[in-house]
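Lecture 7 notes: from sequence to structure.
We start with the chain below.
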Amino acid sequence: MTKTTDIREMSDEQIRLVWKDASESLFRLKLQAQAEKLAAPTEVRKNRRTIARCQTILKERGSVVATAVGPDGAAIPEAVLATGRRSKKRTKSGK
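Predicted structure tokens for the same chain:
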């Protein structure tokens, strides 16, 4: 488990690596949970909290925090998401 004080001492690049490792571990745990019973179900919660801590600290520092993952597995920054094209909402028309 990575404590907040440990994360704050890291550089932005190191925090992103911790975040990536926790995300990959969380993904594997979720797959394992669907296939079989987890030996340590609390690991899911620990990984989610580590990810949240990393995102919070990066946001506090003013670094770009990604909120989504692209098709190649790379993180998509918030700035791209905010300016990206959005699909139009379809409405039912009486015509």
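Points to note: Residues 4-77 form a domain with the Helix Hairpins fold (CATH 1.10.287). Strands lie at 66-69, 75-77.
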